[in-house]
Amino acid sequence: MYLTWLDNNSWLIEIAGKSILLDPWLVGSLTFGNVDWFFKGSLSQQRPIPENIDLILLSQGLPDHAHPPTLEQLDRKIPVVASPSAAKVVQGLGYSFVTVLTHGEAFTLNHQVEIKAVPGSVVGPNAVENGYLLKELESGFTLYYEPHGTHSSQLKQAAPVDVIITPIVDLTLPLVGPIIKGTNGALEVAKWLQPQVMLPTAAGKNVIFEGLIPKFLQAVGSVAEFRSLLAKNNLTTQVIEALPGDRIQLQLHKRTVAI
């Protein structure tokens, strides 16, 4: 399994010989409702669109996960698996093959990779977006992704999981609290799933944020502090802090099954 962090929430997952592009923001700026004064993100280094993509996977319909300018650059014939809100975005852009997954539903890519939707982030008063469990069917290796640090207790049924991609640092707003639930959520899900490897996501590296909201955002925690928390809880999970563009080969081992 190979993972390439493309910055922010964007990943290229190479699993079972297939390339899955996850929540891509690779070109243009990021705004919500085209209100630049409120929030605007700009890439200091735009990433080339990966070639030979077998599937686009979208966890949310918000622009930082289903980014219209990026999706407009991609081939509309690439199959898409998406949450209901993200599916509306790609369908509106003319994508031909869109599979909508609600919580508990699964999709199998070429009989090699199973993708199961699980409850993820709460977006709006009643909307719960998707997290995903990706399982390489031949090896049994499993990856879990949730970009806001909201982890459903239903995940306990999936344990153990080999790889987790989720925030490990909190992003908070005064009077509001955490909008990205990193440290405590990541520790809790690590206890549940006993991963071999964890990789942080959501914290943009080569991104310039402007507007009202970024002025008040505060990051709480660090990779070093999280590693220390894992050790204090007797967890041997390796934390890999990826750099944008680096292709990382994960050295995973088969787990011994007790009889």
From TrEMBL:
InterPro entries according to UniProt: RibonucZ/Hydroxyglut_hydro
Coiled coil: none
Pfam families: Lactamase_B_3
PANTHER family, per database record: METALLO-HYDROLASE/OXIDOREDUCTASE SUPERFAMILY PROTEIN, METALLO-HYDROLASE_OXIDOREDUCTASE SUPERFAMILY PROTEIN
Protein name: Metallo-beta-lactamase domain-containing protein
Organism: Tolypothrix tenuis PCC 7101
